[in-house]
Fold:
Amino acid sequence: MTAKTPPAPPFRDPHLPFAKRIDDLLARLTLDEKVSFLHQFAPAVERLGIAPFRTGQEALHGVAWMGPATVFPQSVGLGATWNTDLVRRVGEAVSKEVRAMRAGDDRVGLNVWAPTVNLLRHPLWGRNEEGYSEDPKLTSAIATAYTRGLRGDHPVYWRTAPVLKHWLAHNNETDRATSSSSVRPRVLHEYDLRAFRETVQAGAVAGVMPAYNLVNGRPNHVSPYLREQLRTWTDEDLLVCSDAGAPSNLVDHEHYFDTHEEATAAALLAGVDSFTDHGTDGSKIVARVHGALARGLLTEKDVDTAVRRQLSVRFRLGEFDPHDDPHAGTAEFDTPAHRALAQEAAEQAVVLLKNDGDLLPLAPDARIAVVGLLADECKLDWYSGTLIHRSTPLEGLYERFGAQRVEFAEGVDRVRLRLADGSFLHVPAAPEAADEARGAAGALDPALLAGRTDLPPLTADATGTELALADWGEGVVTLRAPDGRYLSVAEDGLVRAAADQPGGWVVQETFRLEPHENGHLLRHLGTGRHVSVAAGGVKVAAENASIFELIIAERGEDAVARVAAAADAVLVVAGNDPHINGRETEDRTTLALPPHQERLLRAARAANPDTVLALVSSYPYAVDVARLPAVLWTAHGGQAAGTALARVLAGDVSPAGRLPQTWYTSDTDLPGLLDYDVLGSRQTYLYFEGAPLFPFGHGLSYASFSYADLATEVADGTLRVSFTVANTGDVPADEVAQLYTRAVEPSSVRPRRELLAHRRLTLHPGERTGLTFEVPLSAFGFWDVARGGRRLEGGAYDVLVGASSADIRLRTTVILDGEPAAPRAVASERGLAAADFDEQSGIAIVDRAKTDGDAVTPEGDGSGELLYRDCDFGEGVTEVTARVSGTGTLEISLGGGPPLAALTLAEPTPDPYTYASLTAGLVAEGVHDVRIALRGPLRLAHVGFSG
Structure:
């Protein structure tokens, strides 16, 4: 007789619902096994046949950090396409490459950390390249499309499981692990939460990743909004994955908790389910969870809740049903279709900002000068894969116009560095060896990639080596040897010509020339040390810095002027290197184009008036375009960037990208980087009151379009808007029709213009088509702080249709029924929640308690003012009570009158979270504006009125 095969346990039965299967598996796991699952790298459970699992695979615009893959345009470039169908197809291609790569390398994860839905509130944010738009509606539309592509169309099994980054109100790299974003309720609900909410509600999101920063004084990794907001938007089990190292930050940098056991417990209870900390070593997180369990800070039920959410994702990914998983055999990688899609995306991302005199497209027989630091570059960013294919603007123009019609000048300064003894820095010849591209082999953490030490270090000799110097702004320079390799510093401290491009978590290829005596010191920025010429080779050292004289053989602007003068048209390709001056960990300090590139642009324009500026960058610039006939912008466009740009310049493709964020005229238009109050400081196109350089949604075409036949209808809770668009030009082209609204006479500050919907469409010459948008009336509502919820205000709303937020072609006004504004009933038990102000000056919102709630305090322990409009005291009050902590004085006045009550907390409370009640007489009746002045390091949580 043969023994019967034991029946498969219920968690292996594909006919059962996932919930029952997860219940069964949880019951079989020991507490130790469940706790081990809480780390990013969950180990195998061999006795149950469960494989190891890791959360997190970077896939922002292609598979990243795992070696060669198809590289699509940066996220901000995908946002500039305004094309949800295209972005869905990009997400689909990326997820298929994830699956194909995993088949050959099980380090590739199926839980992808993408997309980034942080709103591009401030253009100096170093990670501007990772977001889609400053507008929450456009951001959620593009993010929803990308997540749907990543997820796949199967009703049960997901191709990959997308996680949205970075929850919440995260737009600064400066002090990002310790800074707090002060976000008033209206901004929270109308702006920052909205992009996450609409994307999650669309149904293709597996989870979110909290950001490093704090919001209203509380770290995002213990945010009550994970429970109060995020998990109410869907019935799916969402997996919350911490950012790398953030759990330890709660104690080590933010000092929010005294012990790691307390911090880990608080994060888990708040809703963090997977802890990304200490690399692949899960032992510290496991020990912290066990410590929290032993102290009674957590229960096994709490652990089960988090593990259930992870298992829910793993079941949806088909891990436990390999024979039923429709994505298991996916092998599409670097296919012709993916290459064509990368080119299509790059073409659609190009934005034509200006085209006076129809200088573009260029004539087929034009002699073209291509100049600039990015003219022969195909730059990658921190979240790019390794290029399989590569196309620079120069290569694209060679291919499209013919090499005989294109001249090139990079515009670098050609220099030698001379020492005091008359010798020069010398780059020795490299031995015959295979080239090594940084990251080509893939790395789970590319921050750990080391510089090359197999090449000889620099020396000094009588003639030296001519180096290509590029100044990227802020005095940050790169130096490149004649063989194309950048000067770099490896772990041994020696300087070599060793890098194919600047890159790495700490860039080792950037330097600063510091004036010193009759020459310069050369500081290596990665180590902070100066370059020293020693017997064993050139190195960086803490002492004995060498003094160099900069000998300039040719200035970049001279080379540019020479080729520009002989051309019919000049293309200046300017912009940024995504690893320098504006990247993760580093914000920009200015909108200005770096001076080196300004010099090149001026030289080209002086030599040839038919100069086209192509900005290839991760973010907007403030550029004087008055004397330039044509200007384009594109984000770094991935592997097909050069081909795409050349086809647009040649007229093979009519540009139809649109700006996903406002381009400001100067730095003076910007609020402080840490000012998150988009409403109060009038940020983004929604509230900005100045004249932008280029407005949100702007983008020109080689065709022209007319709009007509606007009609509106309000019925069944929906506004139906229809109109026609016609191509009145003589070339096929895409148009992006945009629908906006504004409240005509709002009772409080509302957006000057707000995007409701958009559509990108292709029209042939003479073709006309009708468009219809159905907008739920809830889209016209706002967060009313007086009632603590959303309200649709009745009244007149402009309906605006056009080609940008400023180029409105059709308009009408509709009257919507809604709820009228009502005074705040402050004499009730509700009183005034301190953070529910209408206006403020000098105030920061802080945490009322470590778990939830808001309070307010003067910034910098100084003074601040709060305004609460239309407060109804009913038939009268005689007393005011304030809940406060810290120490200081609170003064209350009505309207513009003098203080009617002053409350002083003379003795400091034991800590910021211990509140005292202060009471004083205050006589008031009827409706008044209430003004509250705070003096000193005082926290105010609530004000009540009685009597």
